[in-house]
Amino acid sequence: MPLLADSAGVPHLLRLAMEAAMVGCRQITVIWQSESPPPDIAAVAQRPVLKSRATLTLSTSAPGADAIDDRDPVLVIRADRLFHRDVPRGAVNAWRASERAEIGKVDGDDFDAALVMSASDARGLVASATRSGGWGQALSDAHVRGAIATAPVPYLGFSAPVRSHAESRRLERTLVWSLRKSADGLAAKAVNRHISLPISFLIRRTGIIPNHITIMAFISALIGGVVMGTGDGYWVGVLGMALVEWGSIIDGCDGEIARLKYQFSQLGQWMDTLADDFANVAYISGITLYLNRAGVTWAAPLGITALACFAA
């Protein structure tokens, strides 16, 4: 897959570099081993989200011992792979947990996209990569020697080669679906993610950013609360709760797009937190007023108590 090709809304190289940066890599070097001219990676290297975390450079050979000590651990990522965001972290954890292993990786033959090893071993691996079967043979030899430490496959983990445009688009769908979290609640797993993930997939190449989605989710929940708080009748209640639920669904999209396209910011985190809080206040207030008007005597004290507990 070309380094600068679009990968679910961001350059493929940015995706690889950010995955390395997010597990602690501060110096990232692209090793270019091709007869064709190397690409201009300056635009990717200057992306603020990456530049604030790591330095990205390109070289035609692995850094020598003068640049990296032979014993220093190095994260090696294959550029022809697309993988789950936690695969590099798994490789790092496997390396750290082992005292004697030469290589740390996620368990399974398919998970060869990210490996942690000493700088000297990394140089040997890079040198073997240009030979037929070199990468796979090096891992096979290490496995025979019992020199590989492994970490469990992450939740919804995957790692696969990208050899064509069709494969790239198929794996983009897998990448988006893997944005689910093991900590998702029952409603998110049963309903919300089944709607929010397709929406995130559809807007992955648009100019919509997470903060836009946060605002839309808050407005939807706020309107839902106002509709219930000021209206009467069964269908008013249905419409109000439908708007609140729609806000809850698209509220998942802001985090999905942030993880997919690395659009993180402290402003966005605060906006998401405050929008969720005020949305909760809006719909609890709306439900309380709606039920109170319908003659439910316990609604007002329960709603006031709930709001007080929430504020506390």
SSE layout:
Layout lengths: L5 E2 L2 E2 H10 L5 E5 L10 H4 L2 H4 L3 E5 L13 E5 L3 E3 L3 H11 L5 E4 L7 E5 H10 L5 H11 L3 E4 L7 E3 L3 H13 L8 H17 L7 H21 L3 H28 L4 H28 L5 H13 L1
Parallel strand pairs: 3-4, 7-9
Antiparallel strand pairs: 1-2, 5-8, 6-10, 7-8
Would you kindly provide a written description of the structure presented here, covering whatever features stand out?
By secondary structure, the chain is an alpha/beta fold. It is built from twelve helices and ten strands. The strands form four sheets. Strands 5-8-7-9 form a four-stranded mixed sheet. A two-stranded antiparallel sheet has the order 1-2. A two-stranded parallel ribbon has the order 3-4. The model has no long low-confidence stretch (mean pLDDT 90).
How would you sum up this structure in a few lines?
The chain has helices at residues 12-21, 42-45, 48-51, 87-97, 119-128, 134-144, 165-177, 186-202, 210-230, 234-261, 266-293, 299-311; strands spanning 6-7, 10-11, 27-31, 55-59, 73-77, 81-83, 103-106, 114-118, 148-151, 159-161.
